[in-house]
Amino acid sequence: MAAKEAVAKPEKIKKKSMLAETLERTVKAPSAKLGAILFVVIVLFCLIGPFLSPYTYDQFDLMNIKALPSLAHPFGTDALGRDILTRLMVGGRYSLALGILTALLGSVVGVLLGSLAGYFGGIVETVIMRLMDIWSAIPSMLLCLLISAALGSGFTNTIIALAIGSVPGNVRMQRAQILRERNKEYLEAAESINCPKSKIMFKHLLPNVIAPTIVTATMTIGQTITMAATLSYIGLGIQPPTPEWGAMLADGKADILYYPHIILFPGLIIALTVLAINLLGDGLRDALDPKLRS
To answer: What is the pLDDT of residue 38?
Structure first.
């Protein structure tokens, strides 16, 4: 034949990135899907809700002090006549920000120290791990109380106190992951061509051991929100008039017998938020588990 037959080009196989595959596996998990939907609803409730409310979080209504839930005030009012629903919306911004920023700060410090201890070993590992032993000898909640009492109440000080308490656990977990990966062939190959140690650690090593840290950080958000509420409840976290969820619980504790709605709704939204984050964390953990990958 004079005409040359066209040679069909082989189709390129599109390989999904680890991020895309992880997201796909996460959304397929029923528990993670429920947790994600619930968490998104709570976030929208906190971000958009205050703009739709006819009240402000610090608006007094002296004619409706400790009013029960009604059409005018769906969640009732507190001891100063302030609308509880509006205060929950605004307070959620502080509570969610506390949880996310604290988990992020504690994870970053833990990853850095744990990576240094696991990769370099020797005196560096000894110093860091002995410091963590001393650090973790004090229960995390007690440590948070001590730091909060020393620094005082406030948004920034509460983040610092909660983050410091979570560092030792993150350091130990990151060090264990680094030690398990430390003698793999790809690291030996990178070292054999005199690749800088900083590049080996941050470009080659960390991406392969970061998955457990992401899961732990996700699960820590829910725990941090609970601990922040505890600090506010005992007067060491964010304090009134800022409507943080824990502070709202503290405000209503004196009226729990006769006006339980004042603490019922803040306690309920804290529980729902922690539940949503834990469900999402469980799904993320399963998605990042290499044993469950095809």
So the answer is: 92
